[in-house]
From TrEMBL:
Residues 1-91 form the DUF7800 domain. Transmembrane segments: none annotated. The lineage of its organism: Bacteria, Bacillati, Actinomycetota, Actinomycetes, Streptosporangiales. Residues 139-459 form the PhoD-like phosphatase metallophosphatase domain. It comes from the Bacteria. SUPFAM superfamilies: Metallo-dependent phosphatases. This is Alkaline phosphatase family protein.
Length: 542
């Protein structure tokens, strides 16, 4: 009998369509069914490196539908599992009359104990939804903005898996090595916790990667890339990481129309049908995506009613050469510029890395970029690069030109220069392992421009790093670093902002609620045995 290895996951949804993603233990025909609602849609699996995947596209659904479903593989019902103790998984399309709720967060370690990483915000959300039914408020979308898996900080369970595959001491030491290792990372993160597995089967999910999905400080600089590619094990690592991300995460971010026209998806399905396994095609694509970032776009944008969500890849599409640096390459920058338009009630820009950092950190990173670029001479440049990698100084502030380009985009939108100004323009980010709200104060715009950060879902900062960041969040801490940046001839930032809520250092999940021209955000943290409790709440547009 065919069995599910991972899934089902509800991925891209719209008002009338939905996508179900699964991994099975053998090639098969996968169907998503509900006889009462006349639902019966199917897809054949494709195979890569001995693993079998299917995406079932469902069309013609009613807006705001709530349809329980079953998954059938080669005629056998494989979902729901018997006696699982959870309500039926549902396909949940978007409702144009009900506003939009997007829950988001980043940085989730799994597995692990409460003593190590605290209570899991995703599991806490699953408990609330599974126990409350229609009596609780459900998110319409779950957006995970990075570090869905930790390929370079392994759990004991992952180390045990690796022990059975390679000899002790074989490089890379204590890290994922290839596609097979990554498949097990995803299984540990999304299958072995029953609550989270159920949550992903019933709440539509979108994702974008951050560094730990591949490796700490991924693409921090040209020097970092050269060092990694000099390692004999790196090719298998990067192709395995990017290839598995494409299958386990990116495929589900695309709309059905985008997936149907995607050349990589077509090539993998064709190779799988003709040779039985498309692993070689996937590896070739993944290697090229790393070496030629402009060959692949991981960013995406979706319009849901009067809201546009833009999800920006701030990792793989970086421009890193001996003489140019950018958070985004030229093609990606043009794409983002084209997506930043008015005419919406709300514009959301999701980036794993916060665009607006605490001022002290922003100035430290802009100073360091100038130093590494030679502002203090050749010796200073070498020291600057060492500081950059040691202190993780590689956010938007460390890419001055990219920061200024995005500022120009959002200010133009907020002033109504690209169509009617939205009520709100919000950056949604994670990465830094604490949560806060920052508001743009200058220049003036019709739109309220904010940075909303929620991190971690489950991986809190330890004490000394927590105190260092708490100090960095104070207003007084910004002055000395701004002075350093000024000495390095870094121009004044084109916008000004201040932190108005937070910082909070607990595990958390945030929910942005959009209704008409109103936008508010709620941060919640799992306490008291793992139940979600309010940590902060604010009205963005008020």
């Amino acid at each position: 009998m065919t069995a599910l290895v991972l899934g089902p996951h509800v991925r891209h949804v719209s008002h009338h369509t939905a996508t179900i993603w699964v991994e099975t233990d053998r090639p098969c025909e996968v169907r998503v069914v509900n006889q009462e609602h006349g639902l019966d849609a199917g897809a054949r699996t494709f195979t890569a490196h001995g693993h079998h995947y299917a995406l079932v596209e469902i069309e013609g659904l009613a807006a705001g539908a709530r349809i329980p479903y079953e998954v059938v593989a080669d005629g056998d019902t494989v979902w729901p599992e018997e006696d699982a103790g959870f309500p039926p998984s549902q396909i949940r399309t978007l409702d144009p009359e009900g506003g939009l709720r997007i829950s988001f967060g980043s940085c989730r370690r799994s597995p692990g104990t409460v003593e190590q990483f605290g209570h899991d915000a995703l599991a806490a959300l699953a408990r609330r939804l599974s126990g409350g039914g229609d009596a609780v408020t459900w998110p319409d979308i779950l957006l995970m903005v990075g570090d869905q898996v930790y390929a370079d900080e392994l759990s004991d369970a992952m180390r045990e898996f690796i022990k059975g595959r390679r000899a002790p001491g074989d490089p890379p030491s204590d890290e994922a090595a290839d596609f097979e290792d990554y498949t097990h990372l995803y299984k540990l993160a999304w299958h072995d916790d029953p609550e989270v597995r159920w949550l992903l089967s019933t709440v539509p999910t979108f994702t974008i990667f951050d560094d730990h999905d591949i490796r700490d400080d991924w693409n921090t600089s040209y020097a970092w890339r050269q060092e990694m590619w000099s390692q004999p094990w790196w090719k298998d690592r990067i192709t395995g990481g990017i290839g598995s991300y494409w299958i386990y995460q990116h495929l589900g971010n695309m709309s059905p129309e985008e997936r149907a026209s995607d050349p990589v998806y077509k090539a993998l399905r064709t190779a799988s049908d003709s040779t039985g396994d498309a692993g070689a095609v996937l590896d070739e694509f993944a290697e090229r995506a790393d070496k030629e970032p402009a060959s692949t776009r991981w960013s995406y944008a979706h319009d849901w009613g009067a809201t546009r969500l833009i999800v920006v890849d701030s990792r793989c599409s970086r421009l890193l050469t001996t003489d140019r640096r950018g958070m985004l390459d030229d093609d990606e920058s043009r794409w983002l510029d084209e997506q930043c338009q008015g005419g919406m009630d709300h514009l959301l820009i999701a980036s794993s890395l916060p665009y607006l950092l605490p001022m002290a950190i922003h100035h430290a990173e802009s100073w360091n970029e100038a130093m590494a670029g030679g502002a203090w001479g050749k010796a200073g440049a070498g020291l600057g690069e060492k500081i950059r990698q040691a202190a993780d100084l590689e956010h938007w502030a460390a890419f001055e030109r990219s920061f200024r380009d995005v500022a120009a985009d959002v200010v133009a939108v907020g002033r109504g220069e690209r169509g009617p100004a939205p009520a709100s323009i919000s950056f949604l980010s994670g990465d830094i392992h604490y949560s806060y709200l920052a508001r743009v104060t200058e220049p003036g715009t019709q739109s309220k421009i904010s940075q909303i950060v929620c991190s971690p879902l489950r991986n809190p900062l330890i004490g000394k790093f927590r105190w260092a960041n708490r100090i960095a969040c104070s207003r007084a801490a910004g002055g000395p670093f701004r002075a350093l940046a000024r000495l390095s001839k870094v121009p004044v930032p084109p916008i000004r902002w201040r932190m108005t809520e937070g910082p909070w250092f607990d595990n958390a999940i945030a929910t942005v609620h959009l209704s008409g021209r109103n936008c508010d955000v709620l941060w919640e943290t799992p306490r008291d045995g793992g139940a979600l409790n309010e940590m902060g709440r604010t009205d963005i547009t008020g």
